[in-house]
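User: Structure please.
Assistant: Input sequence and predicted structure:
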Amino acid sequence: MSLPPSPELEPLLTRIAEALERLAPPTPPAPDFSSADAFLWNAARGALQPVLRVNRIPLALLVGIDHVRDILVENTRRFAKGFPANNVLLWGARGMGKSSLVKSAHGAMTAEGLPLKLVEIHREDINSLPALMNSLRHAPHRFILYCDDLSFDSGETSYKALKAVLDGGIEGRPENVLFYATSNRRHLLPRDMIENERATAINPGEAVEEKVSLSDRFGLWLGVHKCSQDDYLGMIDAYAAHFGLEMDRERLHWEALEWSTTRGSRAGRVAFQFIQDLAGRMGRAREVA
């Protein structure tokens, strides 16, 4: 049977208790989902930060990737309307609009009046994904969780948290949440990581299957590949028309091709960078980013 503290110790114990309460992190406030259509997950605080202006371009300007765009938009629309839809892995060439597709597809849904929220989670916070999903499970909204440039390096184990959350575990993925990821890798894990598992495992086939099956958790694999010259020039024409940059078409194409040659790439990002440079040279004060 414990004895009560002596009277002279009570003030000291009270001060210690108060100091510990001040050191404890405050409970994060409940997110106000009506404050914005997009949020950024702050894993350190366990809180969602509203994003009042999403950095995106109109969906119609994403030319040259029409087939992938249409599939992603249709999957997103079905989900926003409350119907079954798939997690999506957008993989392929750099600068071809993978992340722009996700943000623009969400923008298209909000423009249609569909109550869909976009939540971005950083690559280094993937381990906190279960906590984020649990915080959204009972929310009265539907959410696209989005991670840009997702991949895992040798020795990392956080991929297991992603694998379990996508459709594993006892609770499974919340019905009001989908996960979209972009990556330059189709299988998210480097080849040497898979080969190392093959060499050291008791059952090499099962070890490799464990690694590759992460991508299988995504119902849709949408590949975005390098564009042709015609597609690149189509992007240039679309951007120039949208931003009202008037120039002789032949000269516009010549300058755009020269720009892509100096960068060693033809891609949507390169096309947009050229348009920004052109707008600056033409003295256009309007914002194009």
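The longest helix spans residues 66-80.
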